[in-house]
User: Fold this.
Amino acid sequence: REFTWNFMCASCHSTGITRGYDPRSDRYDTRWSEISVGCESCHGRGAAHIAWARAGAPADTAGRGLEVAMRDPSGGRWAFAEADPRGIARWEGPPRQAAATRIEVCAPCHARARPIVPDPLPGARFLDAYAPVLLDPGLYHANGQIEGEVFEWGSFVQSRMQRAGVVCADCHDPHSAKPRADGNALCAQCHLPARFDTEAHHHHPQGSDGAQCVACHMPAVTYMGVDRRHDHAFSLPRPDVAAAIGAPDACTSCHLRETQPWAAARIAHWFGAERRPDPHPALAIAAGRRGERSAVPRLAAIALDGAQPAILRATALSLLSAPPTREAAQAVGASLRDADPLVRATALRALEGFDPRNRQHAIALLDDPVRLVRIEAARLLAPVPPAAIPPQARAGFDSAWNELMASELVAAERPEAHLNIAVLLARRGDAAGAEAAFAEALRRDPAFLPALTGYAQFESARGRHDAAEALLARAIAAHPDSAAAHYALALALVRAGRRADALPELARAAALGPDQPRYAYTQAIAQFEAGRIDEAAQLLRANLRRHPRHRDSLIALATIERDRMNLAEAERLAADAAALDPADREAAALLGQLRARQPRPAAPR
Assistant:
């Protein structure tokens, strides 16, 4: 299914596509107007434009009959201000009315996103038709630099240039698909060469590869061995930050024999150590990815900082860890009213980790003007009983719920779509519908691990433990080296009251998934509850050697050492846990208790 032209390729490489998938027969009847990219891919249906041309209308007629008119009618231009020492052009004239439209025409094929309506038409508002990925691990490094194949939109919307009003067509001719100028001349359209295209700025021999603007500000990644793509965030080189988060950087990607500290020292020597404010947002994003609660205040601050790009703010919201803190609650609450729809939609997702009573906040967003926000509001409200939704909001919920279900069925040929529907129907209390959707997912792919484990959890929750174990046996048979499958079986056995049988599965999960500290931690807790205190302590110590900042392992081992009267060691572990997050009340209370129990030297007489 990863190599199906109809699903994976057609919409961006052809024109006028109707995918024509029939779920009952599991077949396509795909139709198109052009097998390649034509005028109507960007400008929409052309009948009115043809009528305009045949009518002999003057060439300067606004819109020219195009459904999506890309020409900016404002009459403005980019120009350098003589008194501006920065040497950066500014837009002169009325606001660029078509700027957002022009970027959103490009976005569907230049963003990593899933469609939420079937066969979207050109010119549709992007978040009415697509759900883009955020700056997720494996796709982007923590500093927003490209890693996986994410195309250009997610990088460009991080850039200061996008926020200044620059659009794709300022640099790229959309008809020839070529840059509007070669080399540094492209950037010189808006960046004064006398200020930027000099050795005093780039510190490389003039005309060399290192003197090219793209070398430092648009690091590239080659995909599929042949497709070299430049990062479009236009970020400043920060090898010091890259070193801290384990990411590549532009400097040492060229200077292969040098280190990132060397590159950071050179930049500090050239531009000054304090040229940009710190801490860099990437440090908080990296800490949030590791699940460090100490990152929450900084992530919350990023989410609320309107000067930051929306995709970064949304990413920060998505990383706010559970259980929620006061800072997290304030950030999510404020973000539900944010001006940017991507931030609002992500805030709704973030609410899933809060007290269920907070789901009521989604009611106000059921009639949001943007479809992505509406469907996330419906998703969040799925577990809320119909009677708990105010009568005046029920029609809005029904409409948004239908949009949500339709958005999942856009990818009806994929098992993921039916798994998502199964989970939503289970939350809604529709057990029969959920069971049918789980079965449909497994009909698409009998070995689809998320569907097998999700279906098993569904069966366990309604007391059908034998059915759950049978599904997980299938999962392990198909994926014998999957830590997630063994962990799911262990939890199912615990729910069935068979804790002793769960121990070998927990051990297997921990052995197969050493990068997941939760597996070894759960194994240790199970050993502790079985009365094997020494084994539990050994497992926790091994887990902390691999993951020294795993908060739950620190707390658990500190508690064991306290009970064994190893108070100094317990205090050290509790202090490490408390240092991770000064607002962690449990860790602070344990540390205070241990310090109160420690014997202190007698006062001198």
Notes: The first strand starts at residue 21 and ends at 22. The chain has a mean pLDDT of 93.
